[in-house]
Write a structure and sequence with these properties.
This protein is mainly β and 427 residues long. The longest helix is centred in the first third of the chain and has 12 residues.
Length: 427
């Protein structure tokens, strides 16, 4: 056998061919190319010219999970059902004692999931708080092993509930800290609001998505303090706009190494199949990320041609670009020890496209990190299988968190399931 043939065989049997990075024009692919271990790198040089005529409405028609369908993780990992029976499960956060708090946005409740039974499912599921208006963001405060409050961000307001480790139900009504989180008219705009605290616990960051796709903020009052990350004190006093021009920073997280704020962002629609990439990025204080006039480091949105030329040079380029319209939602830094070589890496839920001819997303991705920074700007498919070979969608990842034992929990509002991904080492 020739040397080149031996090399190809060695690469194939080691799985290296599957790990080759898809970049350039190969980066514009869809669900059929998403497989655990496949790596992607989208760069500014790959971006096409805007082509609004390409834009399509291709939202998923959800189907029941087919009998032979199951989320697919890399070799050596096992996927099980952890909990079911929710209306619209979304963001999750793990309390210091290991309990998992889940925002069931559709039901208006905060749930608590505890433990793992012999069947792999949560041993306990309780309702911590109810009658909330589209709850989403959850945070524990003060930081450390013994928080005194659970903060809950709804679509309009911020509440905090008294809390001590082990509480399964709120012991009192939530205190209204922030009355107005810039809601829009019913049925319009982004409804999610996330909340995290700086590493020193002195600053509270609240993400508020835009009220529209690309309405001009100069002329639309509904965009006041929208498409921003807002800074408040932990007591709810407004401090400033921490960062602007971020169309919809759905999921926030604090980098455990650098202390920097990061967010997972949905970019704008209707500029074409391959515009504009969603992204996951560190968020610079007083930084401007372009929305609505620019995108991706100073590209002008043609719908606002000629507006605000003085801002072009100020537009920041995000750290990691993912495929357009993936619907990047909650992100987290993995601080568990169960997954080999993953401590410090980012995991993010990709809800899936609606404004693209070929579906993309509907998965959980992993971003390799080193010393708190992306290694190469690549991302990797981690948990796939939520779309059938025929293109029917049965699952939509929306939330991720690390369980007490280091397994990964994934909220899926398509099948209304919380999945548990654990490492077994068995191939």
């Amino acid at each position: 056998m020739k040397r080149t043939s031996l090399l190809v065989l060695a690469l194939f049997t080691s799985g290296a061919i599957a790990q080759q990075v898809r970049t350039g024009q190969q980066a514009w692919a869809g669900y059929a190319d998403e497989k655990p271990g496949q790596r992607w790198k989208v760069t500014l040089a790959d971006l096409p010219e805007p082509n609004p005529g390409e834009a399509v409405g291709n939202g998923p028609h959800l189907v029941e999970r087919p009998q032979n369908a199951w989320p697919v993780a890399p070799a050596g990992y096992k996927v099980e059902v952890y909990a079911q029976g929710f209306e619209i499960p979304r963001l999750m956060r793990t309390a210091p004692n290991g309990d998992v708090f889940l925002a069931d946005t559709g039901a208006g409740t905060i749930k608590v999931l505890r433990g793992v039974g012999a069947d792999g499912k949560a041993s306990t599921v309780e309702t911590f708080a109810s009658h909330l208006d589209q709850p989403f963001g959850i945070a524990f405060y003060p930081l450390g092993p013994n928080p005194q409050y659970v903060y809950v961000a709804t679509t309009k307001s911020m509440y905090r509930f008294p809390y001590k480790n082990g509480d399964l139900k709120a012991t009192a009504q939530g205190e209204l800290l922030i009355d107005k989180l810039y809601p829009v008219a019913p049925g319009t705009g982004h409804s999610t609001r996330d909340v995290v605290f700086s590493k020193d616990g002195k600053r509270m960051f609240v993400s508020v998505g835009s009220g529209s796709n690309v309405d001009d903020m100069d002329t639309h009052p509904q965009e006041e303090h929208r498409a921003d990350v807002l800074e408040f004190t932990p007591e709810g006093k407004f401090v400033k706009v921490y960062a602007a021009g971020i169309r919809n920073c759905v999921g926030e997280a604090i980098n455990p190494v650098t202390g920097a704020l990061w967010c997972s962002t949905n970019e704008r629609d209707n500029l074409g199949n391959n515009l504009v990439p969603d992204y996951i990025t560190s968020v610079k204080e007083d930084g401007f990320y372009g929305w609505p006039w620019f995108y991706m480091g100073g590209h002008q949105d043609p719908r606002h041609e000629g507006k605000h030329p003085e801002l072009k040079a100020k537009v920041l380029t995000p750290d990691v670009l993912v495929q357009p319209h993936m619907g990047s939602l909650e992100m987290m830094f993995y601080e568990g020890k169960q997954f080999p070589g993953a401590t410090g890496d980012i995991f993010a839920a990709e809800h899936g496209s609606w404004n693209r001819k070929v579906r993309a997303g509907y998965e959980v991705i992993r971003i390799p990190m080193k010393n708190g920074k992306p290694t190469t700007g690549e991302y990797e498919d981690f948990l796939t299988g939520f779309v059938t070979a025929e293109g029917q969608v049965w699952g939509r990842p929306v939330g991720v968190t690390t369980a007490k034992d280091g397994s990964l929990l994934v909220a899926d509002d398509g099948s209304r399931t919380i999945w548990r991904v654990s490492y077994t080492g068995k191939k």
